[in-house]
Amino acid sequence: MPEVYNWQLGRRMAYAFEEAHPERQFVAVFNTNRCIGCQTCSGACKATWTFSKGQEAMWWNNVETKPYGGYPQHWDIKILQALDEAHSAAGRQAAWDPSQSGEKAPYGQYQGLTITEASSAEQQALGYLPADAEWRAPNFYEDTSTSYQGDRLGISQVGASLPEHQTWFFYLQRICNHCTYPACAAACPRKAIYKRPEDGIVLIDQARCRGYRKCVEQCPYKKPMYRGTTRTSEKCVACYPRVEGRDALTEGAAMEARCMAVCPGKIRLNGLVRLQEDGSWQEDPQHPLYHLVMVEQVALPLYPQFGTEPNIYYIPPRWAPRPYLRQMFGPGVDQAIARYTAPSRELLAVLQLFRTTQRMIFRFEIEEGPLVLETEVNGQPWQMYNDTVIGFDAQGREAVRLSVVEPLHERPRERLNSI
Amino acid sequence: MKSPPSNDVMNAERDFQRAQLYGFLSTAFLYPQENWTEDLPQLGSLAVDVDGLHELLSVGPFDLAELQGAFRRTFGLANPLCYETEFGLPHEYRQSQELADISGFYRAFGFTTGGQIRERPDHLSVELEFMHALALKSWRAASQDELDRLEICREAQRKFLGDHLARWLGALPEKLALTPARSPYPELLRFAAEYVRRDATALGVPKDSAPSWDLTPFDPDFSCEACPVRPE
User: Fold this and answer.
1) B1 is a domain residue
2) Chain A partners within 8 Å of B134 (Cβ)
3) Is residue B230 part of a domain?
4) Where are the alpha helices (DSSP H) in A197-344?
5) What is the number of H-type helices and E-type strands within chain B?
6) What are phi and psi for residue B110, nearest 5 degrees?
């Protein structure tokens, strides 16, 4: 297998194809702290793309309740277990070396095996085929938390407080990660899966697909799905017509995917980041996604140890146990939560941009405002300023302008009952 | 307490693999619009120990134009080899009854011929595609634990193989004995016949003791001379 550089792992790794990168990459950041599990994103995706016969198992977008939930059921536990067994067989440890961190390795260096390195001779990537029953529901164990251990009745006498809750769950929002090194594309025996050079979106060519389900088997995130009515596999298409700016609404400007644009919890920010020839992100600190992922490093990839370099990033939930989160999001979790809990002036402004416009934001500016709050966070002084953040679309036009403190509009007394 | 899954459910994956293989064969016996030899490596995992697999995997390489040429040379423009009712019937008047029987199988499961590719119901590809659809239905029923539906699909496959596909497919490889060199179709046909024979055995289809593989006569002799009970 050729070797490619995976910056999330901080090292080169084996992959089925030679390294080749798109001009820009479809990227999103999901803030798990704000998700209310309403599945509006799932509904919007279905209403847009998977509405017809056979749609019942097509949850291109789903929100699952961690730690028990998953779609398909226990997908993460099963692939982690398989990876663990591969490590045991090889006498290796799935450890990270933070001392190797640097500009090209922000999380340090992963010294374990990736799914492409742990695969057998018959597979391009380590994987398994879920049974049909495991696809029956998109959110098994909805809202099921871990149990409280301290009381016979399961009731805490002292309540819960950060940094970790004993009784916890959180929602994990999932779409295709449009990986830099997609295992589905590596697995496909007909080369029906490709990554677009203009935006890095990974698509399954429905005309070439014969439904061998190798992508279903070898995508570690289990996001390609086999559809019996078409006898082909399908997956999230990243709403590519919107990304291309073909919707008349924005006059040619790139738009966020439907699941991002409908989110009532305002947890999603979606855009395109420019890549350099070697696949690294072009330095652009005024790009909101670059700022969140590279500058502040509050948004982290999901299971980076799989080695596919996923392009959906998550701001981890503050209350879940850290070992669980480190396994899920890598070694950057503690720093990410610390920075999110006491955000810098810039970060707080950028966090306001989530889901405020359907247009993708390519640049932001901040107009400084007055100090409005002085307090302590985790024993450290922290100030909040009512800055104004301005987002600009693909054409450089102002797309959105909003302040950190949400403006309060009081209805005049004479119109209290008017609509 | 929930009962453990039955063997049928456990074997759902085998039905999916059968569906994949029947689907591949169905496409491969049509005039090639795509190069089906690209898919041959997949057969290795779908039909590991079937006789003829190794020979089939060794054919080629063929590009699409070569494959189309091979198809024309092998089956000819009239393509009579690919139709079930061209074989084994006492005379051509029986064809309509046989075609009705085959179509009855399709209609019982909601299928009709036509669409993008128009072929007779007794074309090899159409019969293989029907088996593909039934195997896929079996997979679906087994994985949903719907055992009554599974048994309906299995029974239909048994009957269809016994009455039609498995009964006549075995004779085709011999009919291609004069095929010119440089064609993957003899190997494909030998593999298909062997696979269908094994599948029929696995499903419990009784063997046809003495099938007739003569071409169905277009001009049968109804005179007293041709009568098998005529006095010597």
Assistant:
1) no
2) none
3) no
4) 214-218, 240-243, 258-261, 288-290, 322-329, 333-341
5) 11, 0
6) 85, 15
Is there a contact between A227 and A135 (Cβ–Cβ < 8 Å)?
A: no
Chain A residues in contact with B23 (beta carbon < 8 A) = 210-211, 231
In this structure, what token pair is assigned to residue A26?
């479809």
Q: pLDDT for A321-338, tens place per residue?
A: 999 999 999 999 999 999
pLDDT confidence of residue B4: 47
Eight-class DSSP state of B162: I
Q: Which structural domain range is residue B29 located in?
A: 7-202
Average pLDDT over residues A46-72: 92
Total structural domains in chain B? 1
- What contacts A137, CB < 8 A, 6 or more positions away? A71
Around A229, how many Cα atoms within 13 Å sit in the side-chain half-sphere? Answer: 9
Q: List residues of chain A with CB under 8 Å from any CB of chain B.
A: 122, 129, 131-133, 189-190, 210-212, 228, 231
Question: Is pLDDT above 90 for A33?
Answer: yes
Is B60 inside a domain boundary? yes
Closest by CA position to B160, among listed B119, B130, B192: B130
Cβ burial of A236 (10 Å; 0-12, 13-18, 19+) is: buried
Per residue in A137-178, pLDDT tens? Answer: 888 899 999 988 777 777 777 778 888 888 899 999 999 999
pTM of the model: 0.89
Residue B75, domain CATH: 1.10.3480.10
A241 phi and psi angles, rounded to 5 deg: -65, -35
Q: How many CB atoms lie within 10 A of CB B152?
A: 17
The encoded tokens of residue B188 equal 């494909």
Nearest to A212 among B13, B42, B145 (CB): B42
Contact B41 A189 (CB under 8 A): yes
Q: What residues of chain B lie within 8 A of the CB of A228, using their CB? A: 136, 140
Q: Which residues of B touch A122 (CB under 8 A)?
A: 45
How close A191 gets to chain B, by Cα (Å)? 10
Q: Where are the alpha helices (DSSP H) in B47-184?
A: 53-57, 64-75, 95-108, 124-143, 147-160, 166-169, 172-175
Task: Give residue-wise pLDDT tens across range B111-168.
Answer: 988 888 888 999 999 999 999 999 999 999 998 888 999 999 999 999 999 999 998 8
Q: What is the DSSP string of A165-230?
A: -SS--EEEEE-----SS-HHHHH-TT--EEE-TTT--EEE-TTT-----HHHHH-TT---EEETTT
**3-state DSSP assignment of residue A118:** coil
Question: Quick one: tokens of A44?
Answer: 């919007």
Q: Supply the ipTM of this predicted assembly.
A: 0.78
Residue B211 lies in a domain: no
